[in-house]
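hey can u run this one w/ iron/sulfur cluster bound, need the structure tokens asap thx
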Amino acid sequence: MGMQMQDNNKPQHELNSSDNTCSAYVDRKPLHLRVRVLQGPNYRFVKNTLRQLDLHTVCEEAGCPNIYECFESKTATFLILGDICTRNCRFCLVSGGRPNPPDPNEPLNVARAIASLGLKYVVITSVTRDDLPDGGAAFFAETIKRVKESNPECGVEVLIPDFRGNWQSLKSVIDARPDVLNHNIETVPRLYPRVRSAANYMRSLELLRVAKEMGFCGLTKSGVMVGLGEEKNELIGVMADLRQNGCDIITIGQYLAPSKEHFPIARYYSPKEFEDLKHIGLNIGFSHVESAPLVRSSYHAKEQTGRTG
Ligand code: SF4
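ok here u go:
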């Protein structure tokens, strides 16, 4: 398994940068990563709505630093299929273990929450459900359908797992017609065995390519975390691979270890480095590059697609 994973995780591109320098920025958390803790009325309204409908968000489960800003602007990323993940990625705070069966009321409750919050754009993601034969694809499709039925104006972005390469599952999600299909590549292929050992770099690239080959005509999107120990040329390689596989939008943000037990931070990138990565991504051909220290794949998601209003 280990050897096979290494081979499958080799980069697809030709490395094309000689600038490999990654000098440490600072050891302690820099100022630009500090956030304002503000629990305003909208924050509380979002929290109450979620609890009343028994819903989870990745904002809470993954300890996202943007939660105060996003909830206050009535934005949230719904986490469907429960809050227990069957994988054990070393960067993620979501609990691992044996999940409960999916809640059949969840798709409708997500739609109700969106109506109650008045959202014009929503991101829906899930824990990885390798225990389910379809990886939870039917649940994604049902949730998209319910959301579009009761909130026809709302743009729907799904951030999906790799379904272990089951492209029939991918097709059932695509057939539900989300507006944006997001699948995070997360890190460079060299670090996969240590950071997300149950995933596969080539499979994730293939997912994005196959989605378009299947006729998905919305935008595809992916995201990477930086600061895990990758080199600059490796990051550029990942960007090139994503573009080669038809990916339209990329998000780039600083990795923050959720605890001492999680994968350690190798270093903090400076705001200038994020700006540089943005220009590199645009030159490579992405239609949008969201690159900043606190960017997460759902941060300002609506704006990334060019939608207004
Ligand atoms: S960036 Fe995404 S995950 Fe984080 S709080 Fe905002 S919507 Fe939630």
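The chain has a mean pLDDT of 89. anyway lmk if its weird
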